[in-house]
Amino acid sequence: MNTNTSILSDEYPSFDVTLPDGREFDISTAAGTASYLQNVDFTTIRPIDTTVKELIKIQKNERENPNYLNLVMTLNQFLAFLVNNADRDVFLEKVPQVEIQSWLNYMIQELKRLSETPIWTQTGALNECDTIALTICIPLFSHLAPVELAFDNDFFEVLANFAKVQREGNHALPNPEVCECLSIIVGNAFFVALSKWTPEKAFKKLEASGVLFEYLRYATTPSSQGRRAAQAIRSIDALLANLRDCHVFLFKKFQRGQPCGDLVSAILQGQDGSPQRRPEITSVFQEIVFIANQGDVTEPRHICSTCGLAGETYAVEQKLLACSRCHSAYYCSKRCQRADWKNHKPFCKTCSKTKIDSMEKRAESFAIENYVSIVMRMVVECDKAGLEVEDMVIEVDFALNQDGVDRPLLEPTSLFKIKPRLSYDNDFSKELLPKPPLKAACFLLLFNTKIIGSLALIMGEAFSSTTVDAFRQAMLGDFGALAAYMGVRPDEVPGILQGHTQYLPCGPRL
Length: 510
Prior knowledge:
It contains 23 helices and twelve strands. With 510 residues, it is of the alpha+beta class. Helix 5 packs parallel to helix 10.
């Protein structure tokens, strides 16, 4: 591959690729990439295959040769620019499968080789050259053709074994950079696969390969700094959100006794993964465990109130529609819902009010008992979003437990979902939320992740900006304002914060 670029710099202002006839194309731009793909003849020029063969040749003779690192970095940048700047359809049309297959074969052999190196199995680290080689997968897995080839060639089985040998040899997680890289690779493959498969099928394939198990461990790794870390966080959060919504798959693969189910439980109990994981990871893992183990999944969870059709079982994955008002009646179609409305209407009104009243009391009690945890989490979320407390909403999500009793889905309260008010752009949720101006945060009630009402009772001084500011100062070491608000001595405040003590302040009540 003939290139002209500052390949050892952090930024690549240009990346010139030279054809045999002397013409140069700067593929760091979309126009240059389009022109390159229009003029290159892949039947006679095989830039990826040629570079891979050079890498293998150098590797056999002298791995420490500086040309090896240069070639790896060049290939990485070439593929990154080509994939990111090319039109998706043009890329798939112009770049032959044999080129992608050559790269994939190389990566599979590299992963097998690395699985036997002491530096990986004993420390979970990779040298610079091997790390860069691994990152080549990131841009290519943003296209369907490489992802399909990867599944067909058992790439993810090899990747899972690569992670497994390190886990069994060292038990600790690899360094954050490796975890982020592998998380993005799997995440890219999953989301690209959605253009062909349902989320359930994509998860089934990842689980069958073993890579989903390893991915769940890597998702707990504390993030490092930089764009790659931010990309990994976005990818992990999006993939886990999809996983949480695949209830039938969770019933099958995440119950107790299943590898993924036991792993998530072990992570929550502090027996695996990283104890310094992000709170969002703990929250979604708790939801996954709850959903996967909420009852006998061989029996229908609901039946249509009109025709009796069973829904949401292993055998019948028919999703029934819940009454949006009371969430107590289920229907297989709008026709059945309309047919039953005359019978259901009197019950619906009573049930709706009773359910919401019950949830309001439970949510209020829940907030009072865990007041300190909620406000401390509010400080973190406000600072992260750059917003005031009155711009935030605390979600309380209820679900039925195995005894048929509704309870908050997210426990303890330190794992409440706290989100900016502006993130609720749905007309229905806007209507339910109290109208600004507000003086404090408000609570939003959900049932099985669907918004059903807001809790205007928990408003006032306890969740005001003044109180949150007092907690913020205390978390930074200044206990005066919070001690005065709580009616305690300043030296008592650290114990309350560190223990997340269930403590209702002596100031204005909720």
